[in-house]
Amino acid sequence: MTMDNDETMYELEYPEPETQSDASNGLSLVVALQGYADAGQAIDNAGSHIKAALEHAPLATFNNDLLIDYRSRRPAVHILDNELAPAEKTELSLDVVRDNAGTPFLLLSGPEPDLRWNAFTEAVTDLSKRFKVTKAVSLYSAPMPVPHTRPLIVTQHGSYKSDPLRYPRFDGRITVPGSAQLELEMKMAKEGIETAGFTAHVPHYIAASEYPSAVVKLLQAVEETAGVSIPLQALERESEKVERELEEQVEESGEIAAVVHALEAQYDQETARYRERHDRGLLSSDGEVPTGDEIGAELEKFLAQVNRDKDTHDDGAEDNGAGDWDESDAPRSHDDDNHGDHRPRSDGGDDSDEA
Length: 355
Description:
The chain has helices at residues 42-53, 64-67, 117-130, 180-190, 212-226, 233-251, 254-276, 292-313; strands spanning 10-12, 27-34, 55-62, 79-80, 83-84, 93-98, 104-111, 133-144, 154-157, 194-203. The chain is α/β, with parallel strands linked by helices and 355 residues long. The longest helix has 23 residues, at 254-276. Residues 280-292, 316-329 and 337-355 have low confidence and may be disordered. This is PAC2 family protein.
């Protein structure tokens, strides 16, 4: 695709890799664009895992100079032995992937474009029609007020009809910030391509950390929807490790345990109500996805009540040095130390509005 100023939006690979199989009646496209709704780094890791675990080859590579605002997404540059090393390369690409049974599907992965959303989504839609895509599966993850001790919820939107008990759907009207990925979903739907958007609900207090459980659940949704097989054993082992670490931290702090128990009660009430009306959405018709500020405010109110109850119970007792609960006490993976400061955030970033 060529722009007015002769700059190309993307370059096609030559020779073009094979995208069809004898049994193929159309391809599925998996969309995993990082940077919009990526709580627990689930979307970035989902795309990376597919490429690491399965045979793949590039079909098209997009022009970052046209799509990325480098000032808001600065690439890391290393100084090695007093010399500048090349910057880390960030690539937005469309790849053909084959699962272990040889079934092909397409993967669009890399950073979400900052610029030219219309041109980008038109280009991807044109490529999808060229390669006979019949179904598009888009992945999201959002920080939500849910406990890590309950089954992770994955909600679904779009024209594809999944099991409402396995992948709940939202009722009524939900307002979320726009994104290139959402624009792409709408364009594909207009072209008659079946769309399925899956959103993993990541516990908001660990949304800044890597959360492999969300990756596993999203890739399981891809398997079921696209009819492909993705090796998940390594991810499942890592998920079990992180869950054990979180449980250990909860057991070490009564304040953290109280917060988690409150979220468990809320989760149990909501899921019970949903099962009673399983043909409806997860929320009531006038429900809205809570914003990051609302999540943080609710958590602060609960913690304030915990402290008031504690003060009443310990009235007259000497200070035992425990102090007030601080967000730095919240559970987080031990692996976080390798990834900078991953303490829980109450604002949830841009991700908190996605569903």
